[in-house]
Give the backbone structure.
Amino acid sequence: MRLYIAEKPSLARIIAKGLGVEKNEKGFIRCKNDAIVVCAFGHLLKLKDPDFYLPDDIPSKEGTKIWRLQDLPIIPKKWEKEPISGKEEQLNIIKKLLKEAKDVVVCGDADREGQNLVEEIIEYFNCDKPLLRFWSQSTDDISVSRALKDLQDNSKYHPLGVAAESRSRADWLIGINFTRALTCNNPTTGLLSVGRVQTPLLKIIADRDNAIKNFKPHDFYGIDAVFEASNGTYTGKWQIPEDLLNADGYLTDLKKTEEILNGLKDQKGTVTAYEQKLKHQTPPIPFDLNELQKVCGKKFGFTPKKTLEIAQSLYEEHQLTSYPRSSCGYLSENQKSDVEPILKNLTLTFPKFKDALEKTDPNRKSPIWDQKKVEESSHTGIIPTLRAITEEEFNKLSEECRNVYELIAKRYIACFLEDYTYYETVAVTEVKENKFKSIGKHVVNNGFKNFLNDQKDEESEKDNELPSLKKGDEVKLAESKLTKSVTKAPPAFTLVSIVDAMTNCYKYVDDPEEKKLLKEGKGIGTVATRASILEILEKRGYMSVKGKKQEIHITDKGQFLLDAAPDKVKSVSLTAEAEEIMQRIQNNEGSIEVFIKQQESFIREQISEIQKIREANMERCPVCGQEIRRYKSKFNDQFYWRCTNKDCNKAFEDNNGKIGAEIIKKSVQKFTCPECRKEAVLHLESKKKPGNFYFWCTECKATFKDNEGKIGEKMDFSKSSDNFKKVKCPSCGKKTCGCYQNKSGNGQHWYCSECKDSFSDSNGKPGKKFVK
């Protein structure tokens, strides 16, 4: 029997359809030719929790070992995995089928995670059967049928899974160790979550917010000129000498600018350079995910996550587009034969594109075909599949799916239209050693731009011709005027622009060597994870998203995290370097063992740095000299300080973040309880009704009314304190179920003090059980 293990149920059904379904059984599909298709539900396994690797003598709280700085770093000697809760049943089905199989086909998505997701199951059960790989960038019937006929040796794709495993382990090491280190270092602030990518990303956002906050606008100047030649006029822009520019590249000296402007009056100019070239602009290549997210964000206001969800639906549910989580916009050579049938199918879907489709040339030479880039990425650009749908079927898709599919289809059609061609003319005119540059354009053929109709190109597509000139021509300076502009603060990041910042993170570092290294890489995060990382930062309260433009800003909580973390933990460079190493592992040029050892060494070094930061910033108790910490009161918004030395345990007032006067506890009078006869009753003020008092026993938990400062009658919260009875509980069968007044004051309910179940009231008896 041949066993196909798919990443998810939807892919399993598609593969089973391609093989020929015979029978649907529990947890798998039996197919023709002795084949079985079984599916995972995403990851079925996870790396074991830190408690597994920690000594058993560490104190526990609520079944979990407590976090302590002295136990860090946590570094597994041998990495182990365990089933994710609730997925054991499917794992057992796969285990049984693996034993019966002669060979196994890995059918994860065409990426790192898809490879690892299936391989880790096979490795978990120590399966040594021959492995094959089903690899398809699309899930339409034709593409799936091709992939089933062309199963590859899995060893070709195994490095993808190793790269995913290295990412998983590195994320575990950094997330677990640094989150615990910073949280233990700052126990009064709650959880401080650190991530290999999310923390450097947070630093990029914080730096941009600080740049905006500290920005001071200033004026800068230039000179525009109008020249008259024998056969027409043209404009020129003064090329400001470098020695007049400030460090930011602006001319801010108004007096100097006016001096030069005044020297130009009544002068003639000489053309010192004149060149005309025919230029070609090829159509844009198909979308990768990053580019698709940017365009959808600007055009439709979609978040990166929303765009990915729609693209995933078009790929998985509708089989209309190729694999969406691609960082590559190029196509492979073997996709050339699909061009003609895809374009033909698109005439059915988009009759409105008939004119453009008739002008396409499927055999056109194009830069979109780049086998090397495809092999480096393991993915191709996002394009329409071979599945044909009519205009009527297209209109039945959701509006969001229609919009994104049309974008992808238009970009693909444009690849086979003519180039945009134009003549560009550049002239340099010199007036008293001041150079003015003029650029003219004459459009020859709008080509693909007539079809894509990008608004940003509307102005650039218009002719702006210069008169015919030649070097040495003398021209008249007809007009010259001073231009004044004001520098602008950098724009706040948005959910769309931050994805581009993650890709081009080299723009946000100052060190020239780091900038060069990052420019050669692929940024931080991957196209598949960037949207989810942004979502995590927002959910954890480290950044906020505001307004229609979806601007993102760091929060106070996020800034506190950055202030507490060492510089290298929030370094963009180190994260990008790790991504590059994982890419080399994917290309079978690196080792997971070496990479993880590097991560371990880095973590040990930084844990030591965090402990030094703690010691340097530690506040000392004025009484015993041991560490003292600042806490927020549980009862109000005020802060106080308490010594961590249990033998001292002194508390102090908070004086604007500094240690104030010692808090002297007043002795608390305790009264004898009428019920349990113990001296354990406290006189308390009601939180809900300030000014009202009651008595409460800390031993038997009985509550009593306040009778002019003395213990009054016992307060019974049951339906009727006079005839309160316990009845048999419908759940546990014991006579421990009582009827109580609802907190709202309206109606009542039943509650069992033994099994803790609650029930509605049904004519004075326990009714329907409440779901917890």
